[in-house]
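HOLO CASE FILE
Compound: magnesium ion
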Amino acid sequence: MVRKEVTPGERLGLAVLGSTGSIGRQALEVARLHRDRLRVVALVARSNADLLEEQAREFLPLMVGLVEEGPASRLRERLNGTGIEVRAGAGCLVEAAAHPLAEVVLNAVVGSAGLPATLAALGAGKKLALANKESLVAGGDLVLQALSGGGELIPVDSEHSAVFHCLSGEDPGSVERIILTASGGPFRGYTRGELEGVTPEMALKHPTWSMGPRITVDSATLMNKGLEVIEAHYLFGLPYDRIEVVVHPQSIVHSLVEFRDGSLAAQLSVPDMRIPIGLALSHPERWRTPARRTTLEDLRELTFEPVDRGTFRCLDLAYRAGKMGGTATAVLNAADEVAVELFLRGEIGFLDIERMVEAVLEDHRPWRVETLDDVVAAEEWARSRALKWRKEKHG
Ligand code: NDP
Ligand code: MG
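Model generated. Tokens follow.
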């Protein structure tokens, strides 16, 4: 399929995968403001039939889908007579991603469940606005292969959106390094002893961003920044030793790029995901977003400090997995997915997240990722190794 460019007066078909989540809902706010430019053609989520019904009635897409069959059949009954097709099962993600009337696909699913849809969108030559960082962490090599099929990938993650912005019109060869900023999360300044006692409730309170539960916990352990280092490696083609992380608690500078001539470029704004979502949907244009304007007051105190790597060890685990290559990053992500879920259920402690991931990574002998099956097999191995670790530790 040939990708359409955004031309004035024309509406682009938009598919939103993960429309009921934090990013999905904010994307629909942007779409609501730009009904003259975007036409929502497909909406997919996992199980939230109530919200998906509401979104379907407002945006009147051609298809909606839920991964879970039970909620999907309830939704089918409720949307009966509207003419909206209701699909069920994991296949509906791929179906929406490759929908013939979608020119732009926003992948805002959480977890590596988003990877097949990423590959399908790129394989079908779509413009893919990618929030689902796990696609790149679990299957970066496959995503790069799929990109050669003529699709376009624009990052939604705020740090990568900032780097994308800074690189616009630049020669990629002139980039010396990328510096990703991290807020430091809710436990910046904590000691290891203090971290032992952290509860899910405490970890779910992020100081500057409001996000889904997995990424919020990952931000508290700094694993999120580790996943983002891997994401940046695949997106911008830089080796790991040229991707750095700095703590910037105000979350105003969303990342920086250092060029060969000694110049640093950065993108600044109040922390509001509707800005990077808007850029990904509108690029190469820039559309209005509902975000508050950034004022000079907001820039009065911008501070930067090194990451406390001795206390927050997940970041180094991610660098280690990245340098191991092959299936190691898929294993890192899957082990973390399991660990975060167990932590949120109160079954393991906060520091057990990094301990579990480390134990799994240490045992892993990576292999090359050539097909989706390689990723699936590595993830299965990682999940069962993670659960075994938990059994050994906690009985
Ligand atoms: P949420 O948990 O808020 O939303 C996740 C969405 O994905 C929901 O629509 C959910 O459906 C759906 N979903 C969950 N599991 C599956 C599955 N197995 N198959 C299909 N759909 C599924 O997550 P966020 O919006 O916070 O994050 C989405 C992605 O964006 C993540 O990869 C995250 O790392 C990334 N991101 C998020 C940011 C943020 O500010 N939130 C910032 C940068 C990146 P249902 O509601 O029915 O369960
Ligand atoms: Mg981010």
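CASE NOTES: The longest strand covers residues 38-45. Residues 110 and 132 are 6 Å apart (CA to CA).
CLOSED: yes
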